[in-house]
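Section: protein folds

Sequence with per-residue tokens
===
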Amino acid sequence: MQHANSRWSYLFRLLYLIGQLWPTSKASYVEDNYPASVIEDAHLTTLQLLSKYKYPGELHIVTTEDKYLLQVHRIARPGAKPVLLVHGLEDSSASWIIMGPHSGLGYYLFDAGYDVWMGNARGNRYSRAHVKLNPDTDKAFWSFSWHEIGVYDLPAMIDTVLNKTGYKKLSYFGHSQGTTTFFVMASSRPEYNSKVHVMNALAPAVFMEHVKTPLSGMAINLLKVIGDQYELTRHSYLFYNQCTRSAEAMRLCLFFAWKVIGKNVAELNMTMVPVIFGHFPAGANSKQGQHYLQVLQSNRFCAYNYGTTENQRIYGRATPPDYPLEKITAPVALYYGQNDYLSTVEDVERLMKRLPNVVLKYKMNKKSNHIDMIWGIHVRSWIQPQILQVLQIWEAGGPQNGTNVTTEYTEQTSYTIETENPFTDTTAQTDATTDI
């Protein structure tokens, strides 16, 4: 009965939110409560953000083997070691910089001396193009899941970066779907393992048995109605305009976001929330969501399930094959939060047992959710120095001359952060950890 009541509660809140999102005259709440620079950042593209903050941005168009046209955005440092950053579901290259030069991982890596390349998977706002297919009129454009992103997009991006820079290897960063697609690539096209110094997996999304979001059932029913070849939440400013129109609208939008990723108010920079809504969602294909839900329901990390007849034709078997994770030989560093509703501790630890070359297990504190490692207030002091150390070690070929490297890092020391929370009358508090 309690579970049913919770579902009704979410449904009523969703219906209320829909009412809030109904078009009305433009509200001035965001203009009255947020700095003009923040509002501007919500409306700038990735390259415009780089220009605003005086970083050298470049656009590169990558053509995949199946003729999708992808935008890759570069923070150019010619001659320096290259790194490739790939975003999560419904996200874009902007994810790595929207929190600004004092927080964004893209900026941090550039300032540390790297040539930074930020990819955009097919179907998002920057990679909504094909040599022949029109995404507005050709349903065939939307025939992909994250399987094709791993098999085609990532290899094309990696080859482009290496060809442009002259290096034989790069270091890779993936967040959420950006990790899923890497593991698809590295298991299905294992020759690409030799092109990667180290894979940094932020909130790795592979196994999903212990997913905690209470909205998964609603997602399953919704995607059944939508189908698996449909553009899902094409980028627009609807979410920005409506979720920032009042304090109540913003609270409701964040309520649903936290039901998906896990709630950690103290690590969310409330000042930057309009920027998040301006860039997210960035667009995707419904089949990507369907594929994740298949993983959740089957408890397997496997190719897309088309049904018995089509599976037999495509795979030569009635069920889709598992991705052979044992073929992934690239060094993998795993970063995961203990309050992540999507990439749970149990599922990440299951992944650890399957990967043959895990070089770091970085478990964040008990409040950390699915996005804290990229957008959290304290990423610059918590996790980014650890990331830089991992890069330096594995770009040099691994620990040298008997160097002792910590491969397990669990944040344990507790302290309290107090932040202004505009949606409650109490002070938000969290535990964080800094101890090895």
